[in-house]
Amino acid sequence: MKRDFIHITDFSTAEIKEVLELTAKIKAYVKEGKEYTPLKGANMAMIFAKPSARTRISFETGMSQLGGHAIYLGPNDIGIGKREAVKDIARVISRYDDVIMARLFEHAHMLALAEYATVPVINGLTDLNHPCQIMADIFTVLEHRKHLDDLKIAFIGDGNNVANSWINLAARLPMHFVLASPNGYDPDPQILAGARKAGLSIIDIVRNPTEAVKDADVIYTDVWASMGQEAEAEKRRRDFIPFQVNSGLMKYAKKDAYVMHCLPAHRGDEITDEVIDSPNSIVFDEAENRMHVQKAIIVKLMLG
């Protein structure tokens, strides 16, 4: 029976831990110069309605390292949901390729793609969530802390797709997750309610970033205006200026708190050069780990 990875919660707690363990092994193979090619001859179709440097590079390079091949399909190749019905695209690609990765705007298109495809579908991002990113994030935290006990994550900024996936993770792994955002920028209410109902984690929404970063192990931020929100950029900038991750905010955090950002960063807006380039920053480890964790997800879905 085919498996998809559309939401973090598509994996059980045990499966998330299995993927993290496999990621560590896969990364070690790369660092030691050893081959790990369990997917020789396999093909991945990569559908991009929303462009991205890291997503394309990490999936395409990762699939090659696994022994397979990835095909890039940009916005002009497939007008998903516009030029052609999503269910038709899903059915056709399933006849050609062994796995599909899609980076889309509309989450409904991702759900339809998974429903009609007969091969595994991986969510490379939608406006609702970004599960591969958060799997890379939590692996990076584990890599640096060596454990996930008593973990407090302070997310400073918009309750966006990245924040939504962190909240989904909090329904699978215990943590204290605090989102500091202005009024009107809260996360998806259904995702929040579901994670709170799971009863595994403490999840707080606050309006004061200095309150959020107190005793946090990780301080996380993201852009204030994502792709597709350009018309709101000026208003968002005004609303989010007090939520900038800068040296002033870091004074309220633990001295050894890690700083994370999913990139691309708008330096001087949501985060300053001083912070993103500081010794506390693990931003570029996090970016590298996208490739390693995505390889583990692909192997998990295709080989079990």
CATH architecture annotation name of the largest domain: 3-Layer(aba) Sandwich
pLDDT averaged over residues:
97
Structural domains: how many: 2
Shape: globular
Can you list the strand order of the major beta sheet?
7-6-5-8-9
Number of helices: 12
Weakly predicted, low-confidence segments: none
CATH superfamily of the largest domain: Aspartate/ornithine carbamoyltransferase
Q: Radius of gyration over alpha carbons?
A: 19 Å
The profile of the biggest β sheet is:
5 strands, parallel
CATH topology of the largest domain: Rossmann fold
* Ends apart, CA distance between termini: 10 Å
Q: Give the amount of beta strand, in percent.
A: 5-15%
Number of strands: 9
Share of residues in helices: 40-55%
Structural class: alpha/beta
- How would you spell out the order of helices and strands? HEHEHEHEHEHEHEHEHHEHH
> Class of the largest domain, according to the CATH hierarchy?
Alpha Beta
